[in-house]
Amino acid sequence: MKISQLKTLAIIASAMVCAHSAQAGTWSLGASALVSPDPYRGNQDRVYPVPVINYEGDDFYFRTLTAGYYLWKDQENQLSLMGYYSPLGFRPGDSDDDRMKRLDKRRGTLMAGLAYSHNAEWGTLRTTFTGDTLDYSNGLVGDVAYLYKFDLDALTLVPGVGVMWSSKNQNKYYYGVSEHESRRSGLDSYTPEDSWAPYVELSANYKINKDWNAFFVGRYVKLSDEVKDSPMVDKSYTGLLMTGVSYTF
């Protein structure tokens, strides 16, 4: 797995943990280990150490590589302007496939947009909508999920289901193969459309004492046909598993 994808998954994982455990005005520092299947052809899956750095304030939050400013925040609703560095990308030298080594590099970018969540007795609705601000893909990404929190004394479980939408430009940049790349690499040319990718997730937090917590995060994503059909991809799914400990102060 590329270091860039590792960072992307760390963003997802830290957001999943922080969204359900943080109190206003708190910092969380810790360490964890993460593993994920890489969808790109010829890339290997590995286990990596990941630092955990989160802050939740009344007006501002920081979650690894994600930062946001609350426009509206109460017990039920949180609306924020948010931005994050998305290192989603492809480096030809990371692949073991000779054809993939002849493709162009896909770069990470700064994504920015809106995040909204609604909390009620029946669960939580979580949505985000962001776009590329550095003109690499000019892509848009939307995400909507439903989650339900179970408090079991020291253990908190939050299962959820969701779906992620990626625009045509987003998929074309990260999974498309141009005619020029096709001639150079031998892979078929490919131009995807926009896509929907459903997923299920589970985050768990165990309170060891008032300061220390152990956590687990898992997400399984079923790749859309637009992504699976890309010559750059050789899996039908992706996701993550992450576990670690954190200290809150």
Structure description:
Helix content is 15%, strand content 49%. It has a single domain, classed as monomeric porin ompg (Porin, Beta Barrel), CATH 2.40.160.40. A hairpin with a 3-residue loop joins strand 4 and strand 5. The protein has 249 residues and is α+β, with helices and mostly antiparallel strands. The protein is built from four helices and 13 strands. Strands 1-2-3-4-5-6-7-8-10-11-12-13 form a twelve-stranded antiparallel β-barrel. It comes from Serratia ficaria. Pfam families: MipA. Residues 1-24 form the signal peptide. This is MltA-interacting protein.
Integer average pLDDT: 88
Order of helices and strands: HEEEEEEEEEEHHEEHE
Beta-strand content = over 45%
Distance between the termini: 33 Å
- Helix run count: 4
Side-by-side strand order of the widest sheet = 1-2-3-4-5-6-7-8-10-11-12-13
- The CATH H-level homologous superfamily: monomeric porin ompg
- What's the CATH class, please? Mainly Beta
Structural class of the secondary structure composition? alpha+beta
Second-tier CATH architecture? Beta Barrel
Major sheet summary line:
12 strands, antiparallel, barrel
Report the radius of gyration as a whole number of Å.
Answer: 18 Å
CATH fold assignment: Porin
Could you name the ranges where pLDDT drops below 50 across 5 or more consecutive residues? 1-11
How many domain units? 1
Signal peptide: 1-24
Subcellular location: Cell outer membrane
Organism: Serratia ficaria
Family: Belongs to the MipA/OmpV family.
